[in-house]
Structure formats: C-alpha cells, structure tokens
Amino acid sequence: MLGPVILAASRSDKMRRFVSAAPGTKQVVDRFIAGETVDQVVPIVEDAADKGLEVTLDVVGEDITTPAQAEAARDAYLELVERLKDLGLGTRAEMSVKLSMFGQALEGGHELALANLRPVVEAAAAIGTTVTLDAEDHTTLDSMFAIHEELRKDFPETGCVIQSYLFRTEDDARRLAAAGSRVRIVKGAYKEPASVAYQDKAEIDKAYVRITRILMEGEGYPMIGSHDPRLIAIAQELGRQAGRKLDEYEFQMLYGIRSDEHIRLAAEGHRMRVYTAYGTDWYGYFMRRLAEKPANLLFFGRSILTKG
C-alpha cells in the first residue's frame, strides 16, 4: 500500500526538499493549491459563487514551531476575513483551520490555539460566516473537540471534522449530532496505527456509511466530505430516508478534484462546498492528497518524467 508510505514521507524534511525541487512539482501542486496569496484565491471564490458553489478556505501550514508563527497564522486568517468582508463574500465562504497551525503542538498549546483562534472565529461571525476545525492525527482530537465545545458557547455555528477510519468516531458522531451542530465527515488522511484506526479500505467505507447515517438521523447539519460516487449516492439516500431537504446537509469536495461533479450536485439543488487551500507551506497538504488516491500519485510521476 503506497498511501502509508506517502503519509510517512509527508513528515520527512528530506522528502520535502526532494519533492519541492522536482521539476514537475509545480504543475501538480497548482492542481490542488489555489494560489499562494489572498489576492490569488479571491477570484476563485468569486468564480465559485457565480457557479452556485460555496467554498471553505484553508490557509495551509502545519509546521509551527514558535508562538510567533502561530500568531502569524492567526493574522493570515484575519486578513482573509477582511478581504471576504470587503468583497461581500462572507455568506459564500467559510474557513477551515488546523489547530496545529495555531500552536496546538507547542508548550501550553491547547490554551494557545484557543486564544489564537477565538479572534478569527469572532471576525468570521461578524461577516456572516463561520469556521470549521479540521481533524488531524488522533493524538490531537481530545484537544480539538474541547476547543470546539468552548467556541460553540459563543459561536454555535463553529464546525468540526470527524474521520471514519478511527474506531472512536461513531461515538463522537452520536455526541456531535445535536441541534445546531455542523459536522464534516471524511475518511481520514493521516497515518494512524491499527490500534486506533481501520486499515482496510472496505472497513473504512462501511464505517463512513454508519457515521453518515448517525449524522443524517441526528439534529445537526451534516457535511459530506467525499469524492466517492458510491458514498455520495448512499449519503443522498440516507438524507432522503431521514426526511432531510437538500439544503439541510451539504457535500464538500477538494479544489481541483472532480470539478464536474461540483457543478452537477449544485445543479441538482444540493449545497456544494469546495475545500480550497492556498498558501506557501503546501507540502503536508499536497502529500496527503497524493496518498488519498493512486491516480494523483501517477499524475505526479508523469509530470516529473515529462518535465525532467
């Protein structure tokens, strides 16, 4: 299985240097990363809005080693909120954040991440949008869920992400599927041990369906993060069985992947949100996209060979 190998490489400085220097890298990175600056990503948000799509914006960057870097991440998101406000795009775009970027892994990281994130969530609420807390590896989740719960006291639309490959997630889904909650379900894109996570794709998919059913039958707002046509069709059926209208849940897919499907689902009346990452520290995000689907890795390999 190449996926675990690629995920391990996502934390290797040596591989980071090799991949960054490869002649075909930029071509592939540009497929998944919308740009490096706010100015580059704003036209993409505007284009999505024109097509009836919504977006969630992720300023990529996870290798935070100092409080100053965590504050810089906070400021990058505050800049993004200000631009969305100026352009009147607050109702079309939310934001996704990784707590590692806000200092979660540093000394006193739980409190530091909460302190850095709170002004971003407050600014987002002021322009009519919200923030979703991305799930990272399993060792960070108790902190993430606690921060999510704390922020929801003042900003109840703050969302969070759960991952179907983790054994714990069905219980998390039952707890989170309450009125007013916003929960994104994904398969999971980190290298996790067999002691905490399913390793077989079929088991991960079965868990995904069980968890989607829990969310659809709950009182919250499910966000279905998948590119898998079979899982999308199952989610639609589970939504119908639960008596949900099309605007009572949404689909989410990554920028650069299955763009025609984004348009198709929106045309059917579904809320369709495109997860759009931008920024200069793209390596970790990029490697997880390669690990998720062998076709992405083949595309990268062909690009290196043809550009070499």
* Percent of residues in beta strands: 5-15%
DSSP, total strands = 8
SSE pattern: HHHHEHEHEHEHEHEHEHEHH
Low-confidence stretches: 299-308
Query: Strand count, sense and closure of the main sheet?
Result: 8 strands, parallel, barrel
Shape, please? globular
Query: Could you say which structural class the secondary elements and strand pairing correspond to?
Result: alpha/beta
- The largest beta-sheet arranges its strands as 1-2-3-4-5-6-7-8
> Which percent range fits the helix content?
40-55%
* First and last CA, distance: 26 Å
Radius of gyration: 18 Å
Please give the count of helices. Answer: 13
The whole-number mean of residue pLDDT values reads 88
SSE order and pairing:
Layout: H1 2-9, H2 13-21, H3 25-32, H4 38-50, E1 54-59, H5 67-87, E2 93-97, H6 109-126, E3 131-133, H7 141-152, E4 159-163, H8 169-176, E5 182-186, H9 201-217, E6 221-225, H10 229-241, E7 250-254, H11 259-267, E8 271-278, H12 283-292, H13 294-307
Parallel strand pairs: 1-2, 1-8, 2-3, 3-4, 4-5, 5-6, 6-7, 7-8
